[in-house]
Amino acid sequence: MTIKIRKGNKKEKIQYKSTKRILTSKDIKEADRFDDALNKEIADIEKILIKKNMLTSRARKSEMLNVWYLIGSRINKFLKNNKISPEEEGIFWEQLYGRSGLINKTVPSLSIGKTRNDFRIASILATYPIRKLKRIKFWALWREVLTYRAFQDGRVMNWVLNKIEKMNPKTRNEARPFLKSVSLRMKKIDTSVLNDKELVKKLNDTAYK
Q1: Is the four-CA dihedral 47, 52, 55, 56 of positive or negative sign?
Q2: How would you class 72 by CB atoms within 10 Å of its CB: exposed for 0-12, middle for 13-18, buried for 19 or more?
Q3: How far apart are CA 125 and CA 71, in angstroms?
Q4: d(CA 184, CA 122)
Q5: Residue 8 pLDDT > 70, yes or no?
Q6: Are 96 and 4 in contact (CB under 8 A)?
Q7: Nearest-CA neighbor of 130 among 72, 84, 78?
Q8: CA–CA distance, 79 with 118 (Å, rounded to integer)
Q9: What are the Cα distances from residue 205, in Å, to 149, 191, 209?
Q10: pLDDT (tens digit per residue) in 65-77
Q11: Where exactly are the structural domains of the chain?
């Protein structure tokens, strides 16, 4: 899949990026079709959020967790019907910024890594049952949790969530020292070779209690 890129949303600064070295006219047409479909999807998401009173015409959001859960669910459905290659994922997630002045008013001035891309985080968020997400009600805290690659093992994630629930942090800043400590402890460990008991022992060795 070739992805159409706008620099500052100006027509004269349109580019096409792909893993291919040479793009054909067919590739360009496919990129234009994909881009049009994506713009329509983002516009539809805006309308749904406004209709549900979760987003205002002044870009004010309410129920942030539900807002981003809906965004992630819709994007996941879109990607199911419009597949992109793993090599082009980074370009795709970055290019979602700036398509909606309501979902996000500003385009980040610097390239955003995939682990801290709001749309990518929302996509991951939407793979969880909403009842599980509401164990931690705050989008900002979920956003922080999902940026850590060390939590990709579901068992680690559940352990972390259980700890956070007991700590009852009100902000991501209160949870951040704990999350960083667990990430530092686990980031070089292949958890797939550990049984549940071994994994919990290593997690309990986390410096931050």
Answers
A1: positive
A2: buried
A3: 10
A4: 24
A5: no
A6: no
A7: 72
A8: 16
A9: 19, 14, 9
A10: 899 999 999 999 9
A11: 1-121, 135-209
Give yes or no for a contact between 88 and 135, defined as CB atoms under 8 angstroms apart. Answer: no
> Is the CB of residue 74 less than 8 Å from the CB of residue 99?
no
**pTM of this structure:** 0.82
Q: What is the mean pLDDT of residues 173-190?
A: 90
82 pLDDT exceeds 80?
yes
- Residue 16 phi/psi, 5-degree rounding, is -125, 125
pLDDT at 73: 96
Distance CA 112, CA 114 (A): 6
pLDDT exceeds 80 at position 197: yes
The distance from CA 6 to its chain's CA centroid, rounded to whole angstroms, is: 21
Chain mean position to CA 132? 17
The yes-or-no verdict on residue 151 having pLDDT over 60 is yes
DSSP for the chain, written as a single string: --EEEESTT-GGGEEEE-S-SS--HHHHHHHHHHHHHHHHHHHHHHHHHHHTTSB-TT--BSSHHHHHHHHHHHHHHHHHHS---GGGHHHHHHHTTTS-TTT-SS--SSPPPGGG-HHHHHHHHTTS-HHHHTTS--HHHHHHHTT-GGG-SHHHHHHHHHHHHHH--SSHHHHHHHHHHHHHHHTT--GGGS-HHHHHHHHHT-S--
